[in-house]
Amino acid sequence: MLDNTLLVAQQVGVLFVLMAVGGLAAKAGWLTGSGAKQMTTILLYIVTPCVIIQSFTTAAFTSELIHGMLLSAVFAVGLHVFGVVTAYPLFKKHPSERRGVFNMALTFSNCGFMGVPLVAGILGEEAVVYVSVFLVIFNIFSWTYGVTQFLPKFSLKAALVNPGTLSLAAGLLVALLRFQPPPIIGEPIRLFAALNSPVAMIVLGYYLFTTSLRPQKCDGAMWVAISVRLVAAPAIALVLSYTLGLSGLWLSTSLILTAAPSAVNALLFAAKFGGDTALAARTVSWCTILSMATMPIVLGVALGI
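Request: output the structure for the sequence above.
Response:
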């Protein structure tokens, strides 16, 4: 367990160094708010899809892989349902612009920007296939439940047709046809996929270093959301996994994504749909900082199962 904890701590440390670069770029004026938003768009619509497709071009599409993908989907649905059910009684009395932030911060983990580089670094590129399945469930819940936290309506089209679902469909097609893209296509996909870790962490670093972290008097619920996200959810997942005797690469991947801090979507959705952006930035930033202490411990235990 100690070796696993040290390995995870090293990988998390590397990501935080990359985040520090983003913070320094923000302080120096090299990266602005508009630039960070543009980089986020590139990540969502170009880099992350390439990461998912790349994972399928290198994966051996076996019955074991299919079984693991199905279990990953079930795990992801269960985790998001747990978040929805847990968040409702905890934050139902808060104003909608704050309630939406807390609900999203508790329910959604940073499975894309932080999860992908962590999984690839700790478990290897082949495990990213399971991340792609998790991302599809994440996107469906984000564009249904997530949007309704701030608005009384959602777009079914956006929930089903988004970068996560489209890239998963493309990846599955590549795997089923056993198609290896020619170098003129495969190499750009590989190079774009390689941008995920540094660019994602630079963007996170920008938001982290440009946010006022001073807690407010009314931030008690924020700490509750962070505690459930970083401690309660991973602990429950670990206990259930151990009790049910679950194991495999898909499980290790799912537990890493469970232990990740709150998704940046909590901030992006708050900004887009009229939520409390200052609270969202504060919540995501503190959750990300504290994950530096919690993730190595949780994942050290998880990798030992």
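Residues 63-91 form the longest helix (29 residues).
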